[in-house]
Amino acid sequence: MTPSSVPVQHRPRTPTMRRHWRELVELALAAEDIYAAAALYPHADHAARERLGTRLFAERRDCLALAACTFAHGAVLAVVARLAAANRDETLKLRLARNPATPGDALALLAQANEIIAPRLACLLARHANAPHALLSALAAQSEDIDVLRALCENVGVPSDLLILVEQRGIAVLQRLLAIHLATDAQTLLHLWKNTHTSAVRAQVLRHPCCPEALLRTLPSSSAERRSLALQARTLPDILALLARDEDPGVRRAAALNANTPAGALIGLCFDAQAIVRRVVATRHDLPLKVVDWFIGNADTWVRRTLARNPACPPEWLERLVHDSEPEVRRAVARHPRCPARLVAVLAADPVAWVRAGIALREDLPASLLRRLCADEDIDVLSGIARHPATPQAQLARLAAHAVADVRRSVTLNPRATRRVLLQLRHEPYPLHRVLVFEHPNLTDADRWRMRFDPDREARSRLFAHFGRTLGPVVASAAPLAPLAAVARADQNDFPHPLDEDAPQHEHHDSPSPTNTMESR
């Protein structure tokens, strides 16, 4: 099997870049799996694509693996789709239709106009977020299968005009899905309201952002409908005041969430008998100071915890919560964005490690407290210190050698970790950690090049994709892989040549890799 040509755009390259690219292609062709070659394929010119394509698409088992690969480039999946359509390979089509990375033009190939689409494939295509409008239109107009129409209603990318076609069929089991879909227009919502007395459908109509204005002016009889009305951002304040006194606590809780609920109604909700209502009131950023005073002494732990984290709680009022008997409340004080420095110092010595860990995450932590927490032995505290941008590099180097993986991972997430610290973590036994090191902006491309023999297929694929974009002759027109973290690219001439004496020929991982946390199951 031979792949079809893919539209490409060439770019100028230096002799060093061309030499390194050729070496990269040879490494991919010699690899035991196909994922490195798949990462390079979108960035290759015609000659290299011929060679890589022979490695990628010659065997059906490799095509099946690529079709299920969620980190495969769209250009690769498009070729697999052409092969699936040409060979009428239903198994290959199903795998592509399940893959969220399959681009729209490839999905269109799976539904040839001269073929009858299998119901299972039609459902997958109807639900796919990348399915093109023409394909969805054909499925909406021609399909009589309830499962296919249900899949269309569950697809967030379906436009309003197709939902109108589905609604005109009058299928009761699809009405609630139509009422939920954000693309459903006001006229369709009004039709749904008139054509059903099902409370679940009407509740979704009332909650919809495009709900007709006329439906928001009266109180419905159903609790579910009143709850949706209380959550609706366009509900009138007078209606919300009535809903705030509803007998159903779920309705009162919804009214407490609504930004348009009048202040007088909120005052009543502060003393609601149900804790779930008071907890929601405590999350509001427009709380009056009098309400904050009432809530500080509330008997419910979650109300005090929510209030302590709320920016509406004045920093000086946190004095009454810093010695709370519940550690979760003290932790919330530690995470308050404007917690006073004096209280931060008090909480840094808290007997509960979880509270101290909250302090360790604060970016405004004074240097003296940072040094004190560096001596802590708790894993959560050390993980916070390892991520702190002000942690000294010598301390980060010690944490990079910590026995617990969570602490080492936090070092890789520290934006200020230097190259010297990061180099300690290139041999991490966990693939996720190695990818985080590879993506760190303070690592150089020369360092990344030395990680090219990573044993994990997705980690290796990301590495090859990065160098494909950097060294490859072609900018592919298809959708790219998920973007890596911001990567600082070194001068292309700084890449070590694989035959240079100072460039290691193979990167060994001393400890065996544990259960693969990067590969899809």
TrEMBL record:
Secretion signal span: none
Gene3D superfamilies: Leucine-rich Repeat Variant
This protein's record includes keyword Membrane: yes
Keywords: Membrane, Transmembrane, Transmembrane helix
Residue ranges crossing the lipid bilayer per the database entry: 63-85
Start and end residues of each stretch annotated as Disordered: 490-521
UniProt name for this protein: Leucine rich repeat variant
Lineage: Bacteria, Pseudomonadati, Pseudomonadota, Betaproteobacteria, Burkholderiales
